[in-house]
Batch of 2 targets.
Target 1
Amino acid sequence: MIVFIKKTHIDFMAKRFIFFAVSGIMIAAGAVSMTVKGANLGLDFTGGTLLQLCFEKPVSTGEVRAAMTKAGLETAIQSFTDRNTYQIKVKGRQEKVNEISDKIMAALSANLPGNAFTEEKRDYVGPVVGRDLAKKALFALILSMFGIIVYVAFRFSNPVWGAAGVLALMHDVFITVGALSITNREIDLVIVAALLTIAGYSINDTIVIFDRMRENMRIFPKMPLGELANLSVNETLSRTLITNCTVLTVVAILFIFGGDVINNFAFAMLVGSICGTYSTIAIATPLVYQWEHRAK
Amino acid sequence: MTKLQWKLALTLGLLALSVWLIYPTIDWYTKTNDERGKMEATRMRPKKILNLGLDLRGGTHMLLELDVEKLDKKEKLSDAMSRAIEIIRNRIDQYGVGETPISRQGERWISVDLPGISNTAEAENLIGKTALLEFRLVNTSNEAQSALSKVETLDGPPFQKDGKLLPEIAKIMPRGTMLFKASPGPDGEKVRYYVLEDTVPVTGAYLEGARVETDQQFGMPNIAFTFNKEGGKLFEKFTGDNINKNLAIVLDAVVHSAPVIKSRIGGGSGIIEGSFTLEEARNLAIILRAGALPAPVNIIEKRVVGPGLGEDSIKKGVSAAAIGFLVVVIFMIFYYRAGGFVSDIALMLNFVFLIAAMSYFGATLTLPGIAGMILSLAMAIDANVLILERMREEHALSKPVAMIIPTAYNKAWSAILDSNMTTWIAAIFLFQFGTGPVKGFAVTLTIGLLMGMFTSVFVTRVIYEFWLTSNPKELSI
């Protein structure tokens, strides 16, 4: 039998303030980046036009940028390394569907003569739609978190546990959003899906430890909560790490080999699953302990 | 049969059912593009297969908004919406695109998906045109002439941004008339305008058919239309009453021609002349046949994914996912030995069941949907690890093998149930209230979680119990 993690006796609860501080710093770093740079919201939420064009002959980002400046367009330009491809974005309120993309293409044809391009992708999001998408995604998210709290409160006969689980989940989502902001990655609807995945995974992970605590409470009804929480986290440590390392490996592979399209998605998942592992051990359970401890 | 045999039969039966459900999907995607195209055009596309979302296969998604302000006040919004959807569906059907999901979204939005079509200018014209055909008399009074000469002197168009006439023009327009633009003539010519009567004696609502006809003299494509009985009568009376006046044929507020009525026109047919290309004429005939939209629609969202990009993202994503899956499978065997092997079988079955269920429901797989799949698979792995770790714990207490299995499953069950249920509840909410990608995520997650619980708890246990009937002492975990 191969065993990576032997029986451990780590006093996680005693270190809870260190954990809280570390998380606080990470969340603060994200928050600072968000306030300084602002969240890099994608077209899905701001509205605007995106064109992804593949050129026949090599072009430099500078040339593309110059063409855009000449046409008086304020664009964000992203290049794809292995192909002759550029993504050109103009965010903001745009009332007409093809106006901006026509302008972009006209500017490129005029400034880069003899270099034809094919359109790989074109997005237009009108101003109403952007707001609507953001509103609906947020609404669904809040409702599902509420559902989680109610279910956990019911199954563990304690709303504090549900709240702690949801706090841990939000912790993971916030840190991931912060990391996206720090690395200048954009938040679009696919990232929202990644955040949902992280949230789902985080709560799953937390529940497993809560379940062990519930079981141990029945076996050792007299044991103080701190000891009980430590015992449960230690007992499930092997499972927590094995499951999470497996998932982490898969996500890391997606991040490295998955290609451009899912790169941001894989990045979010990578950060989120690392956070998820950490928050399960270091945030969710210590939060419950802290609350009950203070109540006494 | 014993209880175990029943369980075994159930598992194998479900596997057989899944293979049967997946077969049409595999059959469909192994066909060549041409074959698929032919079948789609003839409506032979199988219903119960796994569809690929536009982000994976390429195509165009459009969201249209019905301009409610221009809607006839008497018409109810919901009626207008279903009529608009019906008409758009008609137009697309006649255009010959094949299966296109068109649905109402929210109060006054219509979502149109055009799979496989990434050159959308034509489709946009086809869908976006109101196709309101009107016949109006041209006002040739002196006041009208002076209004037109005033318009001539302007630098720009005589309309404001909101479409209303400039106040200085509106002042001098004859009572009961409106100003209309003419369809653009050959390049370089200045835009012409017409002053037309407010009243509309005959509209395209009475149209029965429309088709492309080529001009005998110049070979230009024209659109020939026929009225129904009622419309024919109206048109005959109207032309009879207005001989020697000019009749303007107005399509979507643009005057296409304004011939003089030389005599009463019977027979209920006519021709729209204009400088159409053959393509334009063909599409116009289609939309005239399909009928006019109750009000103009605006495109408020449009997403086009070229076919190359879709394929590329599939290839890279799939190969990365396959490597990831393989690594997990190997790791499980390496770490948990026979137990890991059992888990791997469960994982494979989970995947097969998930695809089968999605094929059965004709669900659409999108990138976010794949994210939901990854989450459900990750949670299935977790359930397996939970059970195996419990087995190890029981094993460490030196319990007999026959005792380990039931105890481990019993103890792991509450954790698996609660963690899956929690996520499932969240997924249900997302499915109910989410739109687009969020929904795609929720669909695969909801189905995946159910399959995951079944395979990792029920199927693995059947395998262990089956194993124990012949090897009651050994368990390699």
Note: Chain A touches chain B through 76 residues (CB under 8 Å).
Target 2
Amino acid sequence: MNPLKKFIYELQEITFLIFYAFSGLFSKPRYLSESVKQMDLIGVGSLPIIILTGFFTGGVLTLQSYPTLEYYGGQSQTGQLVAFTLIRELGPVLSALMVSGRIGSAISAELGSMVVSQQIDAMRALGTDPYKKLVAPRIIALILMLPLLTVAADVFGILGGGVVANNLFGLDYNVFLTSVRNGITVEDIIGGVIKPLAFGLIIGSISCYKGLSTTGGTVGVGRSTTNAVVLSSIVVIIIDFFLSRGLQHILDAQTIS
Amino acid sequence: MLSSEEKKIENEEVEEKTERQSPEFGHSFFRADRAVPAIEFKDVRLAFDEKVILDGVSFKVRKGETKIILGRSGSGKSTTIRLTLGLLKPDDGEVLINGEDITYFSESQMMKVRENMGMVFQEGALFDSLSVYDNVAYRLHEKDVEEELVREEVERMLQFVDLEEAIDKMPSELSGGMRRRVGIARALVGEPNIVLFDEPTAGLDPPTARTICELAIKLRDIQDVSSIFVTHEMKNLDYLAQEYAIHDEEGNIVFEEEGERLCLINTEIIMINEGKIIFEGKEEELRTNRDPYIQKFLNGK
């Protein structure tokens, strides 16, 4: 298959997968407990790495931007810069990348080995729809958990920025927090929460698709795991650009007018 | 073997009977719906890209009959089973289950059909994350059956495969033969009237393989289950085509050999080579067939 054909084929298959997963939500049986279990695994399980990522990203933002801001006499605006960058861009994108590394790989490896050991076939033979039982709970858990994780990353990022500004550059916490509060708008926060909703869908559907389309034994599982992480990371970054552009149009237009 | 009388009747005669559906055939073996084959393939074709897997395969599995599918690895045996379950769709031709054409059934329609079917996978295909109990109870849990009834049924099924002691173990703690038997127990929950075996004895020691064949014979003769038994091991063929299970005076199930004068007619053999059926008939006919490929398969040289 040539690359273009393959791309269109995969896009079609992923669209079908999302469609099957969501159309199954409206009929019984609903696997609510399965969704809760996945939320725990994805949300609570990823919290430590998300907090660490957020904290140090916020810290390094202050570290790198403070000297420049000081040069222009704008060091009191550090909080604004850190918060703005985190909430709009780095929070959603970095959380999505961390989650796609941790959860995307786990999902596609788990589903992939289920395919290889015929457990998916067995499930279908026993009358269970794997899209309902396996795919839908994972995608839903990702869509619900990723925004929460992003908020955690944002909060701890701002905290990290504040700690660095205070300890390394002697900036008062109050000055830092005031500039955070003045600098960001409701639109920034809305935009910063809409993005991870989309990223959750992307990571979930790509990882599930790659897992379920595994062929070729254990080697195949490794291959689809790698593919799932690489593809979902790249798609997250590409979609982030277009989402940012779109959100600018929708949200910022109101502020300007 | 009461069912044998009915099975001798030619198809056309039986079909006539379906139309009459008269109450005078009070015995269950003469119920009209027994005339409809449990599984029927009509000129089924399937290819993956360029590779032809099945090339015009047609056969019938009557109710209560066991069809043994022989063939070398990669000859399309397992594909036949996957088509029967609707896990794969044929490129051309029809697949009928209990007279119903399932070829173009959607996944949700298939779920209903699969309720009456059980499948035993090559390696057991147990769910790694669930205990033996949960694996066997899977179908019942999906239907929200009361836990008390579930436990009863699971214990009964595990007793059938002689594995009561493994109930709380995880699949990773089981040996290959035990996994296969748990797989059989899981497939039999809900008493399906069609059971499909996909090389259930591959890689097992002879006594365990024998146990699994005995289970298949019991299903065929005592429970009146229709089945497809895919294998490439000749020992299985001997067991399934030459022995039958009956209740002795004390009500225990015993296995007897058919001997020289009997011929089990509820077991037939199909041999597939390169996607085509090259032989269909009784075991005795297979043994006397002169085809060089069949002879090579039977004798290994």
Note: Residues 1-35 of chain B form one domain.
